[in-house]
Give the backbone structure.
Amino acid sequence: MKIQVITLFPEMFEGVLGNSMLWKASDRGIAEYSFINLREFGLGPRRQVDDTPYGGGDGMLLKPEPLVAAIEQAKQNDPDALVLLPTPRGEVYKQSTAKALAADGRGLIIVCPRYEGYDERVTKWVDRQYCIGNYVLTGGELPAMIVIDSVVRLLPGVLGGENSIDIESFQDDDENIEFPQYTRPEDFQGMKVPEVLLNGHHAEIASWRATQSKKS
Ligand code: ADE
């Protein structure tokens, strides 16, 4: 899956994409990450990308021309790709969204807004707008990383344990939370591993896990 990120701060992604499973996914050729620096599409000698809002108000907005030029370049690289825009105004991003994007298999172009927002007219070039939670961040980079992480880990060949995806939390969005798990030692500072997990009865273990999985 080709994943192109349009951002003013590509260096923010280095640690997240350069380690662990996201790095492995690109090393194995399952995901391919690339960056388009919005500044390169800035206007005039100062490569301006932002401007004051019509109607007044605090802060600066990303101008439409550089954003649309960057999206069009990304589209040239991957004409079928879906254009995603992280924004508090978007639909709530859930596990089912990540699953659908991973199953769809089309490339992703993720536009990361900065400053106080973007000119609304760019949404004409956007396929999906997502909000990752009811809080406001300083830009779209962290939401973009969350989308990338949650989608790439679902691509075939990325995770080791094949059924680990089936047992984990949020299979049906917020209905099922993964059961608690334990490893050695059996007694940690007086806190014991639940007896049922030690007795080797698979049916009992499965039933205990099913009960624990229910959202309290
Ligand atoms: N940009 C700023 N806050 C955001 C949020 N909660 N979700 C998506 N994009 C955002």
